[in-house]
Design a protein that fits this description.
By secondary structure, this protein is an alpha/beta fold. It has two domains: 125 residues, Rossmann fold (3-Layer(aba) Sandwich); 62 residues, Orthogonal Bundle (DNA polymerase, domain 1). 50% of the residues lie in helices and 11% in strands. The protein contains ten helices and five strands; from the N terminus they run βαααααβαβααβαβα. A five-stranded parallel sheet has the order 3-2-1-4-5. Strand 4, helix 9 and strand 5 form a beta-alpha-beta unit. Helix 2 packs antiparallel against helix 3. The relative contact order is 0.20.
């Protein structure tokens, strides 16, 4: 039996369309660029970053704990500019997705873990409103993947049965978390494989 055509596509952003907003590679690069111990920052990052991602603190408050916990010879503004500049568009996926959505009118909803300032910047900088109908971001809903609640919320907002939704993420453990809630999940690994999957999805039988 063929699967039914998905009514809604839930899509992660970091690792699928864009680089991660503030991943470990960017943090290591920041430590080298600004001249402070990576290990010190990393320990504090893991201590508080989840709180930032669910919108409980601001980016400035996150940085006060992780970087500016003692005097530095650089400013928070310079450091934030560096953070924003780490976001880059991954090859091919974003322009293709915008075109695919425009052609077929598929509902696409972002489902991502991101702090508010980084989330807003990336939506504006890369024109993500052109391919998403809505953004279910951890900073706005107070939950982060793999919390089952965020997947339930996503299907309720979409007014769609989980079995009629398709979720794509570059992290297999988050795909598995979605599948446990009845959502069909797919592990995004590269542009061509995901492009082929989405094109075939439109021919699945109801």
């Amino acid at each position: 039996m063929k699967e039914s055509i998905p009514e809604v596509l839930f899509l992660d952003i970091g690792g699928v369309l864009l680089s991660n907003g503030w991943g470990h590679e960017s943090r290591r690069k920041a430590a080298g660029e600004f001249g402070f111990p990576y290990e010190e920052m990393e320990e504090l990052h893991h201590f508080i970053f989840n709180i930032y991602e669910i919108g409980k603190i601001t980016l400035d408050e996150y940085l006060e704990t992780v970087v500016f916990n003692h005097p530095r010879d650089f400013t928070p503004e310079a450091f934030k500019a560096f953070m924003y500049n780490q976001s880059i568009e991954l090859p091919e996926m974003l322009p293709w997705l915008k075109s695919w959505k425009k052609q077929y009118g598929v509902r696409i909803i972002a489902l991502n873990n991101e702090g508010r300032e980084l989330n807003d910047f990336r939506i504006d900088r890369f024109g993500l409103r052109d391919c998403f109908d809505a953004f279910i971001s951890s900073c706005e809903v107070g939950m982060r993947k793999p919390d089952p609640g965020i997947y339930h919320l996503a299907t309720r907002i979409a007014h769609c049965d989980p079995s009629r939704c398709l979720y794509l993420d570059d992290r297999p453990e988050l795909v598995q978390a979605a599948c446990k809630q009845g959502i069909r999940g797919y592990h995004h690994q590269n542009f061509l494989a995901t492009k082929n999957l989405l094109e075939k999805a439109l021919s699945w039988n109801p």
